């Protein structure tokens, strides 16, 4: 079941002179459907009647966590027969994270199956469904840091209600807890520190805005000339992060 916007996008590609084969490969839409839409773009009434509406996430706290994971290491790809795959990449080194991700997907969409696809050095926690693009409207062509990332109003309400879960998802995807050290007066001192690293200015801002709302102090550390790293190093702020997030496992 494809919405009108998806149908019009495919027809516009054809109108630009693209071949039916290339549009089908890019969008995952069959050539038969593309041919049919040339004469009728609206879904047939019987299909509209059978299509399930996109419901709100079943578990909003789990959704906030999953949103953080998606913004960090997630992607959505079309299935040739309709619907989409949600994939979250989780390193093999963190089996606990893999299980947390799987559980979050099941909590958000209990009727959608979840399976693990082993890749080199990581596992793609994957789920097929017809509503993942509704759940994550930030989906789009290209890399996340090359396009605008803004939360819809309903997503921001969930993040406001479950800010720690959202930050936890961000840290579990593109963050870490490490032990830093420095030398003062000839003595070595060690202290814990959190990092969140992401190329997207918008995603980093979502992280820092949420940290500020939680009372967590943060700074930006540049990698060369690029301000990709959000750092939390103040003792009280690290203690807050430890209480609600902790290291990956």
Explain what you see.
- With 249 residues, this protein is an alpha+beta fold.
- A hairpin with a 5-residue loop joins strand 1 and strand 2.
- The protein is elongated.
- Helix 5 packs across helix 6.
- The strands form two sheets. A four-stranded antiparallel sheet has the order 1-2-4-3. A four-stranded antiparallel sheet has the order 5-6-8-7.
- The chain folds into three domains: 47 residues; 88 residues, Homing endonucleases (Endonuclease I-creI, Roll); 77 residues, Roll (Endonuclease I-creI), CATH 3.10.28.
- It contains eleven helices and eight strands.
Largest sheet, in brief, is:
4 strands, antiparallel
List low-pLDDT spans.
Answer: 45-53
Overall, the morphology is elongated
What would you say the CATH architecture of the largest domain is?
Roll
Number of helices: 11
CATH homologous superfamily caption of the largest domain: Homing endonucleases
